[in-house]
Design brief:
The protein is of the alpha/beta class. The chain has one domain: Alpha-Beta Barrel (TIM Barrel). Helix content is 38%, strand content 22%. An eight-stranded mixed beta barrel has the order 3-4-6-7-8-9-10-11, surrounded by six helices. It is globular and about 50 Å long. GO terms for molecular function: cyclic-guanylate-specific phosphodiesterase activity. It comes from Grimontia celer.
């Protein structure tokens, strides 16, 4: 049995406040903090924010999140720690998001292995449901992004995502077009949202349009909305807008940052009807 954090008290022991008053986590020599990148509707209003991890060692050295959340097999010695870190990240994200939730959605990355482990133990998602109620965040404002890791146990992943949908969450397939985020996974999960990887956008503006257009056709077939990730310039933004994409995200539109800093710079965007400048 993989050992990892299960109870609220175990999670609480890992939490503290940083110098800004934000909730952070310390676990096995790593410090985890939250930043949030805005996601915009086609009309320019803010749909919500993707919660992202910024990590460093307790000595202050930065640690790449891609390394922390790399694809590990269940028998890897670091698997249990990774599942705990994946859960802890969502814990701090939800707490840091709650004062600014309002009408906005929060997008949370979920490792396929973590999703399966959580459902199999019936622990983490039940705890998450309890915390959402305490924090005043509606379940339907929570989008769980299944990241692109390859995973052989497709049946268990399908059960996990179905359970999440039954619990009132939305499901997204993250980074579509990369590794395990492929047509087979989309058809198995039947997500409400498909996030197209930046590589599809780059290929589209360079003239290789078929892959992105097939992704749009697939989304239409499974009745999923489309979010384009990695918009980094005006050309990409205009090209995607011309395709009547639902949602947009990228450095060109908004950098990852603390929510307090985002709303301090964009006070009008607390409401649901303010548009991108």
């Amino acid at each position: 049995m993989v050992k990892h954090l299960r109870t609220q008290s175990e999670f609480e022991e890992c939490l503290c406040a940083d110098d800004n008053g934000d909730v952070m986590a310390i676990f096995n020599g790593l410090e985890l903090r939250s930043v949030f990148q805005p996601i915009f509707r086609a009309n320019g209003t803010v749909l919500g924010f993707e919660a992202l991890v910024r990590a460093r060692s307790v000595d202050g050295d930065p640690v790449c999140p891609a390394y922390i959340f790399r694809n590990l097999e269940r028998d890897d010695p670091g698997f249990g720690d990774q599942v705990s870190l994946d859960k802890l990240a969502r814990v701090i994200h939800l707490r840091n998001f709650s004062p600014y939730a309002g009408n906005h959605s929060i997008f949370l990355n979920v490792l396929p292995s973590s999703a399966i482990a959580s459902i199999q133990t019936f622990s983490n998602q039940n705890l998450m449901l309890k915390r959402l109620a305490e924090l005043g965040i509606p379940r339907h404002h929570v989008v769980l992004e299944v990241v692109e890791h390859l995973h052989s146990d497709t049946a268990s992943l399908s059960v996990a995502t179905t359970q999440s949908i039954n619990n009132g969450f939305q499901i997204a397939v993250d980074d579509y077009g990369v590794e395990g985020s492929e047509e087979k996974r989309v058809r198995m999960i039947r997500p409400s949202l498909i996030k197209l990887d930046r590589s599809l956008v780059q290929r589209y503006v360079e003239g290789e349009v078929d892959t992105l257009l097939r992704a749009i056709a697939l989304a239409n077939e499974v009745n999923a909305e489309i979010l384009v990730e990695g918009i980094e310039n005006q050309e990409e933004y205009e090209a995607m807008r011309a395709l009547h994409i639902n949602y947009f995200q990228g450095f060109y539109l908004g950098m990852p940052q603390r929510l307090e800093d985002f709303f301090a710079a964009n006070p009008a965007k607390r409401g649901p009807t303010q548009k991108v400048e």
